[in-house]
Every structure is written in C-alpha cells, then in structure tokens.
Amino acid sequence: MTTKPGKRAITNLATYLSLSCVLGMAGCAPASAPDTRAADEAAIRKADAEWVQAAKSLKVDAWMAFYTDEAAVLPPNDKMATSKESIRKAVSDLLGLPGLSISWTPAKVEVSRSGDLAYAYGAYDLSWTNGGKTATDHGKNVEIWKKQPDGGWKCIVDTWNSDLPLAPPTS
Fold this sequence. Notes:
Shape: elongated
Number of domains: 1
Helix content: 25-40%
Strand order of the largest sheet: 1-5-4-3-2
Distance between the termini: 111 Å
CATH architecture: Roll
Structural class: alpha+beta
Number of strands: 5
Radius of gyration: 28 Å
Order of helices and strands: HHHEHEEEE
CATH topology: Nuclear Transport Factor 2, Chain: A
Strand content: 25-35%
C-alpha cells in the first residue's frame, strides 16, 4: 500500500527546492565589475593634459595620436571630418595658423558606469597672428572618449566652437 504525501509535505518540498534554486543561482551570479570611474576620470584628465602639450608642439602627428581610428572631428565653420585624411587636414589647418598659441582645460569629465565611454567638456583659448595683428578666440569644447583594448583612452568625437559673436560680413 502506498501512501500519498500530505499537502504540508509537498509545500515544504516545493519551498525547499525553490530556496535551493534561488540560493544556488545567487552563488553562481557573476560578480559586478569594480567601479573604476574615478581612476578612469584621472586617466582621461591626464591624457587630455598630454593632448594639450601635443597641440602646443604644433605637430600634427602628435595631435592625431589622441584620436581613435574611427574618430569624428566637428571643427567650427567647417564640415565634419570622419576620415583620417579629413581629420588630419582640419588639425593641420588649425596648427598651421601663424603664431598659434592653443590651450584647453576640461571643466567636467564623466565616465560611464560600464567604464568604456566618457565625455569631457570645458573651455579653450587660441591666439594667432592674422595680418600682422594678434587674433584671439575662446570658446567651449566637447570630447567623447573611448577606452581602448590596452586600457588607455582615446578621443572618438571632438568638437569646439567660439564664444565670440559672429563678425559682420565684410563688404
């Protein structure tokens, strides 16, 4: 003669199996990745400061080293540059200004929780010689940074524009 288990025994068994399953799955869940945002922000600020020094050298290749292969540059008053050649031309045009002095400083750097993308924005200052006179410009910039396979950071999107009002057309 077989006996049927009571309702309580079935409930207890179901509870036990449910708890075992949940606890077992919790133990197998992947650990969350460590939060590296503060270290990544410091790395980006350091890279950005090195980029400024590269810009001050007026060497196009030194500047270009801070871009990813798939970078896009959105210079003011010009077309978007998305190829190495068009980016090189935009950078060459800027660095080729006679008597150029250039600098920028990020006001904010924020790294994504995933730690693979970040943005920075801040201000820039430029001066150059134009027709024997010193011309100046200051404005704001935005950079989007992408973490590279080696753990370093490179800029994937770069744009800047002036705070100065547009000059009236010359007649």
